[in-house]
Amino acid sequence: MRPLTIDSLNPALLKVEYAVRGELAIKAENYRVQLQDGDRSLPFDRVISSNIGNPQQKGLDQAPITFARQVSTPHSTQPRRDSPSALSQIAALTEWPALAELAPDVFPKDVVARAKELLSEIGSIGAYSHSQGVPFIRKNVAKFIEERDGYPADPNHIFLTTGASAGVSLLINMLISSPTSGILIPIPQYPLYTATLAQHNGQPIPYYLDESKDWATSIADIEQALDKAHKANIVPKALVIINPGNPTGSLLSEETMTQIVHLCEKYSLVLLADEVYQSNLHRPSTHPFTSFKKIVCKVQSHVPLVSFHSISKGVTGECGRRGGYFECHNISEPVVALIYKMVSVGLCPPLAGQIGVDSMVRPPRAGDESYELWKKETQATHDALASRTQTMSDRLNGLPGVSCVASPGALYLFPRITLSQAAITAARQHGKEPDVFYALALLDETGICVVAGSGFGQKEGEWHYRLTCLCPGVDEYVGKLEKFHRGWVEKYGEA
Amino acid sequence: MRPLTIDSLNPALLKVEYAVRGELAIKAENYRVQLQDGDRSLPFDRVISSNIGNPQQKGLDQAPITFARQVSTPHSTQPRRDSPSALSQIAALTEWPALAELAPDVFPKDVVARAKELLSEIGSIGAYSHSQGVPFIRKNVAKFIEERDGYPADPNHIFLTTGASAGVSLLINMLISSPTSGILIPIPQYPLYTATLAQHNGQPIPYYLDESKDWATSIADIEQALDKAHKANIVPKALVIINPGNPTGSLLSEETMTQIVHLCEKYSLVLLADEVYQSNLHRPSTHPFTSFKKIVCKVQSHVPLVSFHSISKGVTGECGRRGGYFECHNISEPVVALIYKMVSVGLCPPLAGQIGVDSMVRPPRAGDESYELWKKETQATHDALASRTQTMSDRLNGLPGVSCVASPGALYLFPRITLSQAAITAARQHGKEPDVFYALALLDETGICVVAGSGFGQKEGEWHYRLTCLCPGVDEYVGKLEKFHRGWVEKYGEA
Questions:
Q1: Alpha carbons B121 and B331: distance in angstroms, whole number
Q2: Peptide bond before residue B247 is cis, with ω within 30 degrees of 0
Q3: Residue B10: which of A177, A351, A353 has the nearest Cβ?
Q4: B445: Cβ–Cβ under 8 A, 6 or more apart, which residues?
Q5: Are the Cβ atoms of A322 and B350 closer than 8 angstroms?
Q6: What is the mean pLDDT of residues A286-300?
Q7: Is the predicted pLDDT of residue B275 greater than 80, yes or no?
Q8: Where is average pLDDT lowest: A181-185, A373-377, B142-146?
Q9: Residue A412 pLDDT > 60, yes or no?
Q10: I need a surface site. Which of A53, A388, A486, B89 has the fewest CB within 10 A?
Q11: Chain A contacts of B166, Cβ < 8 Å?
């Protein structure tokens, strides 16, 4: 009997890298278990997972809704769910509809009506739905898109998904038709893209975002990347744009977006628009969000577009429900039918996620019983996130050898750190990338888990890390980062 | 601008077939929309989806819990959720914990305690969990396996999944290391296997189950298939066993299972045990379920085993929550680490599904407030399903040209239909497989949607279909099948 070894497995999977949940995250999880088991030998008393945009994470205690409470009641330690979101209430009622009568006056009227309406369309949340998602919810998504963009959307071209990741992964699997197929991805990028390309034996075609211009996307740089790919006999199939950016938080102007659409026309590229952070805007008056759907419609382009959205981000951050959708535009019916066939093998997305999508695209409206509270809380969340992002980037910029673009969107900062030769040598001696070495030291000393820039991609010789702006007590948090960094500089010297 | 065409996409995906949600299911869905829109021209007033084991489906009105009510109150039209399962109550409380105080005396004490315990481990069901699943729930799964089998289970080797399908798909993706890699699959099989093999460019190595022996698995037939594969230069990597069978409902004896384990040793095969129907047993005294984990441990084998389970089947049938797990046994740590890396790219399985797994592996115990009702209802569900399966197979066997093994397990029957030459000719003239032609006619005339045998695989020149035993009013339902079949024989003659 031969044992099952790594060598006998699909070699493509060995190439997959996903730093967001890689070595650092695994080490952080081990620290968490150590602390839970009563170990008092660590130099911190809790682990802060700043590696992933997980707003409702336990221990963060600044989940979106709580933001509101924190603003008015500093140092509150109440668990978030004492003040439930409309979605939580709807979800509870779809679990057990009779609760509306068993607990009268507990649920707002609009919530009861919404749950009743959803259940009449869904039947039971314990049943499989249509593989593409509940038709009623897809219609609501289409209305949301129409109201956002001012152009029609077709519910039959919308697919509800298990988070945005599942949709991205499927589209990449479809587009990679041979080992020479490539997909243009921004650098730095969210590592789902490189991971999925590796899994499906496709070639990443990297194009670089310009940090000196607040991480702007440049058409010239994309064309340069296309040229390089062409010389390497790689056939570009699609262009990925992440807007607002992850990890950069940057927002594209309509002008750049129009140029990108024309570029996709010129090179026959499918446009994959990752727009999951579309409602995380910190300075919307100067940095608004515009969807690619709107631009493609506006310039009457025939560019095939797939745009992704998720309930895991925004101000609710309902990650654990696993919900999202993608919209196909200018995609032919046979291709849509193929997508349908592929999603049907997975049966259907989770109903909890589908209901989450419905709540995201149909928030309470003025006049609804839930509206005032919802409005107040979401506004407070937006304000708090914007102010934290600004405070954090200001203070990071005050550190020696650190420069940080103040993200206008998303949930992250991506500071650049210059590292001394001594630090780089020490890292190499430990067999680590220098930024990984920095992030490991940060974790060991402070319990703060970030993701090293090498997981997202960066220019040769540059070092960064990504941290979320979802942090408990910004002063204490940034204080720890500052103290660690000053200690590091003391130890290894300035670059 | 070239439009995006099918030819430019991954050719592997074009080969994917998934009949359970294919042509027939799409047509059935269209009929359902027609009926909803008030169309009265159809010869039926509702569509009955017998194509998929979806116990809680709307319109079936015999979802598991309701079975109990139907037994005592025939023709009840109350919706199921008036009598919530403990899982629904727990899920409602994890959505909004304060409900326990806001609606006192509404929730059983054990349910309140369970929800509190789960939340203290999970934090928020809106947050990402550990990619492998909440550690506490994995520990409970391990205890369940230990109690079931009498052998230890390791929570670190258990992965919670988005239904069993997601796990099967990942394992197949991992095992197919080149286009000559093959996986042994039973014929007939659940088409997830052929679909996933096609998607990942692997070769199915079919071995036939013996209908004349109640769909028994024969070691000789598997060895014959291995021999054929060897001659075709296909490298067998794994053996899939579905026990209880889908679509056959058959159950393996411990003797056969032991032989299978030895066969896997002999040929260095990974054993993939699909055991999602393990609690759907209609005649447990003569046809009990034994897990492969137990046999592998009992004979102290080193065969690498991955066994799959799901919350979508059993007596609760919580399909829409998308929950399941797989256990790795005799799988080396580097391979487990690779699996972890792959699941981490998808972030985590839905929390609603994870909570569903917890309820499945920890049902109420004697002495708990929920126990008596749970016991009564699940027993009634088991009894009703067993009696329906028997009644349906008896009556199908009474039809000319139909023979049907009375399944001892799972949710299906897989009757064989002999078709006359006239019927076969008519089918070919319509460009259809004869069993698909039969199933389409059945749908058009009665609104009953089944899956043609060709979707599962069958011997050359044989025809079958799969139907679920989850049907509203067995008399009316089988009556429709009988009337249709007699009309068919009248039209096309006996074989």
A1: 28
A2: yes
A3: A177
A4: B43, B44, B484, B487
A5: yes
A6: 97
A7: yes
A8: A373-377
A9: yes
A10: A486
A11: 346
